[in-house]
Amino acid sequence: MTKILAIISTHGNELLGPNVLAYMLSKRSKLLEDIEFIIANPRAYAKNVRYTESDLNRSYGLSLDTYES
Fold first, then answer.
1. 61: left (phi over 0), alpha (psi -120 to 50) or beta
2. Which of 22, 47, 59, 69 could pair with 64 as two cysteines, CB 3.0-4.6 Å apart?
3. Domain map of the chain by residue range?
4. Closest CA to 52 of 38, 63, 66, 40
5. pLDDT, one tens digit for every residue, the chain (69 residues)
6. Do residues 42 and 68 touch, judged by C-beta distance below 8 A?
């Protein structure tokens, strides 16, 4: 059996992933048996903002000083 990991909401205000998950849940899709969804940035998702401390697109340095690092 193939398993899929879907990492959603890397940026909290990007709603495609959560909308796909909601749609699949509403249809009781059998695909949900093979897909695990992880919200990558739950703080930003909960606040419906892109990020809380630092933009993940700019977080590839060596500093680990912020939540999104």
1. beta
2. 69
3. 4-58
4. 66
5. 679 999 999 899 999 999 999 999 999 988 888 999 999 899 999 999 999 988 777 666 666 676 665
6. no
